[in-house]
Amino acid sequence: MEGASTYVPAAYNGGRATLAALRRLGVPWGPGDKVAEIVQHVCRALPVLRWLVEQGAPVGSELAMEDALEAAMERGLSVSMVAWLQGLAVGQVVRLPYTCSGS
Prior knowledge:
The chain contains six helices and no strands. The chain has helices at 8-12, 16-24, 35-41, 46-54, 62-74, 79-89.
């Protein structure tokens, strides 16, 4: 990942309560807190990723999004996750239900 991150450990653990607390405390997004990098390295939970985007987490470059999408497909993540990432990559976040198995 690019650099230090405050949000990645909470995203890895699926801790939306922890993520929300970080936002309430005004903790800034770190250089490693881009959604594309979080997908590639730690997070498989669509609800967590959607929450991060809704809170204004930086998405990442076009190339980073392509890498995230490739990583998601290689790891066999859910169709919902891949569709959402494709929408995010073209700047059109897909509105999907929050219910998912976390994979």
